[in-house]
Design a protein that fits this description.
Layout lengths: L5 H25 L9 E3 L2 H6 L26 E3 L14 H33 L2
Helix pairs in contact: 1-3
Length: 128
Amino acid sequence: MYKNIEVFRVSHAMATHAGSRQAVIARNMANSDTPGYVARDLVPFAAVLEAGPGSFTQKSTRMAHLNGIDHAGPYATVARDGAMADPNGNTVSVETEMAHAVSVKRQHDRAVAIYKSALGIMRSALGR
């Protein structure tokens, strides 16, 4: 029921995007010493949101599911622009990744706050 209301759908997508981006950042940090590794990031959530209502699709966890996408997620990873390469070709900066991780945590906290606020408004409207 709550997935059909736009504010819940967008806050869920924002939290999912933050979780996916946190996984990419963790992968970058894990490969900070790997020669030739290029730092990756997700397309910003604002760009995903501008893509329209079809960008938030259900995901499938097995082949028998209908109309779903694979479990890899709807967010495309891209090489991070402007990263300076080390002599071994690695473009990961641990300090930069830590700053991005803080930004992602804030995005996730914002999504949860929006969801809780909308849920509180719904409860008030229902008289509970």
